[in-house]
Amino acid sequence: MLVTFKSKESADVIMFEPDAKRILDLLHKEVKMGVITPQEGAAAIAKLEAEALESRAHPMSDVVQHDIAVHHGEAGDDSGHEPVQAIAFGHRIHPLLEMLREAQKHQDNVLWGV
């Protein structure tokens, strides 16, 4: 399922629900519907920036490493799979961070699920 974030000053940001949920859990928001007000914006931006820095410091989690191991054959070959390209959480949240920054600058809400 997809979650679409909206703000007056930015293009819509569309994310897969698991990525959106991870972000919104950090902000103590529900994934189905919600709002980040201008009053909450600065704290939300700071929280997400800190999380982005943390994710860049630890780009490959145990889950990703396990997933890579499972997809490779017992002989260590890749069975023709493409090389894994890990996308850090910080990269996934970048479009939403930009939207939050613009909304904060113009004192607008960021909405989803509406």
From TrEMBL:
It comes from the Bacteria. InterPro entries: DUF1840. This is DUF1840 domain-containing protein. It comes from Paraherbaspirillum soli.
